[in-house]
Input
Amino acid sequence: MLRELWAERDPRVPPHRRIDADGHPTVAELEDSIRTNQPSSIGLLAVERKAAHDVIGYCGLIDAGRGSEGAPELAFELLRRVWRQGYATEASLAVLDWARSSGHERLWATVWEWNTASRRVLAKVGFTETERKEVDAVYGTTLFTTRRL
Ligand SMILES: CC(C)(COP(=O)(O)OP(=O)(O)OC[C@H]1O[C@@H](n2cnc3c(N)ncnc32)[C@H](O)[C@@H]1OP(=O)(O)O)[C@@H](O)C(=O)NCCC(=O)NCCS
Output
């Protein structure tokens, strides 16, 4: 599923997050990275549909590391074939509960300015856009959004 996500990423996503000309990351490399990055109070979780039992993407918390005062960052990505059915919103709300119960008091989320769907999901689950932005001449502007828990 992760390999498929990587393969279908928008061409505006920077190349280091897309499959390279030699086919990396491979399924084995992605598998290895899952095994070595087990979730604790942060981490990416598989989004599984209860009825179909299929994994359709991930949603979780990543170490922000972008000067976000130690608060983790919400992240999500789903396969294109399941977009626009409310799954990212539902998964994000579950992750917000998890974050709260782990003792986190604030989350951040960064999003490309052009990413309308993701901005809409973040707004629906209570994130607000801050003044902070990072402008990249090639890939565009990253917006910083935040939510208290
Ligand atoms: C962002 C993403 C996870 C959204 O998943 P999803 O399950 O489709 O999200 P939801 O169905 O919960 O909500 C999507 C909202 O965006 C809206 N939307 C989707 N595409 C849109 C578009 N092109 N223009 C305007 N609104 C759009 C939907 O109408 C919906 O809002 P609504 O409930 O008010 O109608 C999915 O598009 C994705 O995986 N994108 C690629 C990865 C990515 O961008 N990750 C986030 C990085 S910050």
About this structure: The longest strand covers residues 128-136.
